[in-house]
Amino acid sequence: MWTETDWPFGADPWGKGKAFRCRADDCGGEVQLYVRAKLGFCNCATGVADDGDLEQMGDLALIGKATPIGAGREITVGPMRGRSRAYRVEGNRNAALSLAFNQRCDMVAATALVGPGAPASLEPAVLAFLNSDRMLKWAEIALGL
Fold this sequence. Notes:
Blueprint: E1 2-5, E2 18-22, H1 24-27, E3 31-38, H2 51-57, E4 66-68, E5 73-77, E6 80-89, E7 95-103, E8 106-114, H3 119-130, H4 133-143
Antiparallel strand pairs: 1-2, 2-3, 3-8, 4-6, 5-6, 6-7, 7-8
């Protein structure tokens, strides 16, 4: 139900990532998901431990200015731990989820654009995809695990 699409963002120091789309019929709402590895960017001792770490390490800047809707929460993706937090995207009717999780000093940043008011209800579908064999294998290769 997740279809890979072209990476829509320009070049930056972290390079291109992977982009996916899930139709509303399959995920309970339209989701556009952008993921990429950031090698050596994570605090090796604590990982993505709090909302401040998520703000610094996540990829929300790709989609513009965003304001948190509430507090973040801990997540688990395969053997990795991290955080997720919902945001309102300024100048856009969409909301966003920012997720980041790490293995040692390397991390994956994921940003999901979702419909207004939907981030909490669509987070399980996003996490299920990130925990899929397909994405865990990608993370393993991208992070050199």
